[in-house]
Amino acid sequence: MNKKILCSHCEQDWLELFMTRISKEPFHMCPECESIWLEGQDVHDDTEMYLGEFLESRGISWDGITKCTT
Question: Which portions of the chain are predicted below pLDDT 70?
């Protein structure tokens, strides 16, 4: 994602690319509302998934994810 994309859920911040540390699963997240979009989901559409649900479903905690630098 090279251009900035405004969060379609809260419209308060830009989406950022993260990934899980162990499985390297990429996802986009809004730092403001913690909404997430999994790979293959259209980041321009609203989502109903939040970081807490995602972490719980993967059995990981906050330290199990990292922000991608590219």
Answer: 1-2, 70
